[in-house]
Amino acid sequence: MIKVAWHPDYIAPLPDKHRFPMEKYDLIPSQLIHHGIIESKQLFQPDIISEMDILNVHDEKYLRDLETGSLNPKAVRKLGLPLTPLMVEREKRIMQGTLDNAISALDTKVSFNIAGGTHHSYRDSGEGFCLLNDIAIAAQYLLNEKGLRSLVVDLDVHQGNGTAKIFENESNVFTFSMHGEKNYPLKKDSSDLDIGLPDHINDKEYLSILDRKLNEVLDQFQPDFIFYQSGVDPLESDKLGRLSLTKKGLLERDQFVFKKCDLNNIPVAVSMGGGYSPDISDIVDAHCQTFEAAMNLFG
């Protein structure tokens, strides 16, 4: 049975009119079940991740500063989220959700975290709504415990700078980021392969580049496992995106990635990543079709 990580604590309080769409983490599982894309029994509630698994990737001082609320004000502003005990606990559950999914996908071929994709978090700092890095923690776990080499396919509109930096000297993790060249972060760290896209690129152009480049990466690296960062912020309606993909184009993107995983017999763990369209239903619909694409192929 394909597993989907979700916990009520994925929804944490935010100040009024905050631009982070926290409510999507409540709406996505409800819509998935309502439309029959998943059954409620597929949902599982992750525990708090162990300190050891966090410290395999993140610096201890940074973790302690998060836990005690001791980050300096500038560092807290970079997070973009309030630094509260509830927010830190939320992040730790999300980390465990992606780690659990990585283990689960070894048997079921695919697994999902309804949150995750916190790719802007570095070893010793966080930014862009990311406190800790779930993909990095899970990839490091698979390498340490299973000896598995991972490919990170990051198709969020924002470059996966934190993940790139964490694994810059690790030959067993390949970071591939396809993102808006002129978008956040302004200072980008070097992934193993970065594809910077021009503003307003459309479905056809985007999918053509993805087809060519992902095939090249798979031939070159031949991973044992894939982490798929399936952000929906490349949507034309996204207020932080600057690209011009349609929902149909995003669906074709997801179908392409999952077909490549299936054809090459590579397990894949999916993290949701970003989505900031003004209409929350556009965000939720786009995320839900990622689940549907996988369930249609692997379910």
Q: What is the gyration radius calculated from CA atoms?
A: 17 Å
Number of domains: 1
Number of strands: 8
- Low-confidence blocks of residues: none
**What is the fold-level CATH name, i.e. the topology?**
Arginase, Chain A
Question: What's the short version?
Answer:
The protein has helices spanning 24-34, 51-55, 60-68, 73-79, 85-108, 134-146, 161-166, 203-221, 247-263, 280-298; strands at residues 4-5, 43-44, 110-113, 150-154, 173-180, 193-197, 225-229, 268-271. The chain is α/β, with parallel strands linked by helices and 299 residues long.
What does this structure look like?
The structure is a single chain. With 299 residues, this protein is an alpha/beta fold. It has one domain: Histone deacetylase domain (Arginase, Chain A, 3-Layer(aba) Sandwich). The chain is 43% helix and 12% strand. It contains 10 helices and 8 strands. The chain has helices spanning 24-34, 51-55, 60-68, 73-79, 85-108, 134-146, 161-166, 203-221, 247-263, 280-298, and strands spanning 4-5, 43-44, 110-113, 150-154, 173-180, 193-197, 225-229, 268-271. Helix 8 (203-221) runs parallel beside helix 9 (247-263). The longest helix is centred in the N-terminal third of the chain and has 24 residues, at 85-108.
